[in-house]
């Protein structure tokens, strides 16, 4: 993975690269946020959860929006196209996971850790 992506988003997935569909527009600046367009590339094929046969790549999934740590005082949102897989034996489909984000969640682990540390350091009066 590009170290710039890792330091910018806090996502530790080694398969994330800037999305080539957005050549020259990988990072978009809006009024109150920044968008980073990413895609998963060269993800190894997993085994099917049903029949344990190796799955094949089946394109990319619609983009998922992941809220990352802020950068430059603006909210940072990573728009990631995940790799999709298909089992030729039983027809099961699966999506690759993004390291640094819990499954079916749109908030990066870095934000959760920052919130936890902020709450931990707060001193509430009784």
Question: What does it look like?
Answer:
The chain is an alpha+beta fold and 126 residues long. Helices cover 16% and strands 33% of the residues. The chain has two helices and eight strands. Strands 1, 2, 3, 5 and 6 form a five-stranded mixed β-sheet that branches. A three-stranded antiparallel β-sheet has the order 4-7-8, with no helix packed on it. Strand 7 and strand 8 form a beta hairpin. The longest helix is centred in the last third of the chain and has 13 residues, at 109-121. It is globular. The termini are far apart.
Pairing-aware structural class of the strands and helices?
A: alpha+beta
Oligomer class? single chain
Number of helices: 2
Largest sheet: 5 strands, mixed
State the end-to-end CA separation: 47 Å
Q: What shape does the CA trace take?
A: globular
Overall average residue pLDDT: 88
Give the SSE order as H and E letters. Answer: HEEEEEEEEH
Helix content: 10-25%
Radius of gyration: 17 Å
Layout of helices and strands, plus pairs?
Blueprint: H1 3-9, E1 16-18, E2 27-29, E3 33-40, E4 56-60, E5 64-71, E6 74-81, E7 83-86, E8 93-95, H2 109-121
Parallel strand pairs: 3-6
Antiparallel strand pairs: 1-3, 2-3, 4-7, 5-6, 7-8
How would you briefly describe this protein structure?
The protein is of the alpha+beta class and 126 residues long. The protein has two helices and eight strands. Strand 7 and strand 8 form a beta hairpin.
